[in-house]
Design brief:
- By secondary structure, this protein is α/β, with parallel strands linked by helices.
- It has 3 domains: 191 residues, Ribonuclease H-like superfamily/Ribonuclease H (Nucleotidyltransferase, domain 5), CATH 3.30.420; 95 residues, DNA polymerase, domain 1 (Orthogonal Bundle); 80 residues, HRDC domain (DNA polymerase, domain 1), CATH 1.10.150.80.
- It is 48% helix and 12% strand.
- Strands 1-4-3-2-5-6 form a 6-stranded mixed β-sheet, with helices on both faces. A two-stranded antiparallel ribbon has the order 7-8.
- Strand 7 and strand 8 form a beta hairpin.
- The longest helix is centred in the middle third of the chain and has 28 residues.
- It is flat.
């Protein structure tokens, strides 16, 4: 495997020419986001069947020659746990590379585990134990040493090898097309966009709040999201979740009251205190009908709880037949949503509906039945 370090426009242009026409391209990124809202791309790794490269975005002002390659519909772009990588591409270029393949959900369809880590997947499929010493590496520092570069090259090289094994196995099992809905969601820009008005839904520790307190939380979280984007700063650097929940719960009406909150920084209070008081008052004055509310699923009846237990057992049965883990198909929460009649349950969509959801729905509606014979549980009817 040839390896190249790309840090000049000429090298980048030559790399793109050499990768052109390849059927697939494995991609990985190294980034930092401790001090920024958006991830700061520090290194981009690419690999095909005979060539691997580390592209240095800190040395190259213009990475646009890569765009034609990244958006070539004839080249499958391969990632592992793709969301953070794709967020970087979307922010930097406004587009997501397609078509794409994510080895994490693909591994789940092979029964390797739900949301398996990259190192565990490489060890499982390739028998290679990856080094773990670079998890805390500052990839913005230059120059990168030989050990760091080897680690970066190997990430992309092994990813390509994992892809080829997974793709071959999934094709053999007839499961490759099952992933289309998962990959379509990953390729949808809306997946990565946080609407400021909905930012309160991501605030940790908010559950004890009630009524108008949620209106105050919404106003504070919306402000924080907009300010973080504008300043490109982490949300927590502006206002931590803990302090935001405290402000929403106590609804202080004076700076002196804010100052007494545990963990409040005097510099932040001096800079933002007046604005926070205004936002708190806006939340307090919000009409009741506009208060945001948690979407709490209806409490299941004892009968529905029993049905959930039965469907969970059937799901385990189906998963065993398919050589999958039940959690790779659906969580108990998704089964509860199905029992409650929620049409948004994952079990009613995509490959999950095909291999399990339709059977479970048929069982609920009387179109399928369970039989216990000789100590073995069998499902009759439904989609099988």
């Amino acid at each position: 495997m040839e390896t190249l370090y790309i840090d000049t426009p000429a090298k980048l242009a030559d790399l793109c020419r050499r990768f052109a026409g390849k059927p697939w391209l494995a991609l990985d990124t190294e980034f930092l986001r401790e001090t920024t809202y958006y991830p700061r791309l520090c290194l981009l790794q690419l690999a095909s069947d005979d060539l691997a490269a580390c592209v240095d975005p800190l040395a190259l002002d213009d990475l646009s020659p890569l765009l034609e390659l990244l958006h070539d519909p004839g080249v499958v772009k391969v990632f592992h746990a793709a969301r953070q990588d794709l967020e970087i591409f979307l922010h930097r270029w406004g587009r997501i590379p397609t078509p794409l393949f994510d080895t994490q959900p693909a591994a789940a369809l092979m029964g390797i585990g739900d949301q398996v880590g990259y190192g565990a997947l490489v060890e499982h499929l390739l028998g290679i134990k990856l080094e773990k010493g670079h998890a805390r590496t500052d990839w913005s520092r230059r120059p990168l040493d030989r050990q760091q570069l080897d680690y970066a090259y190997n990430d992309a090289i092994h990813l390509g090898e994992v892809y080829l094994k997974l793709r071959t196995a999934l094709e053999h099992l007839g499961r490759l097309d099952w992933l289309e809905s998962d990959f379509a969601e990953l390729a949808d820009p809306a997946t990565y966009i946080v609407e400021p008005a909905d930012a309160w839904k991501k605030v940790k520790g908010r559950q004890p709040l009630r009524g108008v307190q949620y209106a105050v939380l919404q106003r504070l979280a919306e402000w924080r999201e907009q300010e973080a984007v504008t300043a490109d700063r982490p949300r927590r650097r502006l206002l931590s979740d803990e302090l935001m929940v405290d402000l929403a719960r106590r609804m202080p009406q004076a700076r002196e009251q804010i100052a007494h909150l545990r963990g409040m920084d005097e510099r932040d209070l001096k800079r933002w205190g007046s604005r926070w008081l205004d936002l708190i008052e806006e939340g307090r004055q919000m009409p009741r009908e506009l208060w945001p509310r948690e979407k709490i699923p209806p409490k299941l009846s004892p009968q529905q709880e029993a049905l959930t237990d039965v469907l969970s057992a059937v799901l385990r049965l189906i998963a065993t037949e398919r050589k999958l883990t039940p959690s790779a198909i659906a969580s108990r929460k998704e089964i509860e949503r199905l029992v409650a009649g929620d049409p948004a349950s994952e079990l009613l969509h995509g490959w999950r509906a095909r291999i399990a959801g339709r059977d479970l729905q048929a069982l609920l509606e009387g179109g399928a039945s369970l039989e216990l014979t000789g100590g073995e549980l069998r499902l009759h009817g439904g989609g099988r």
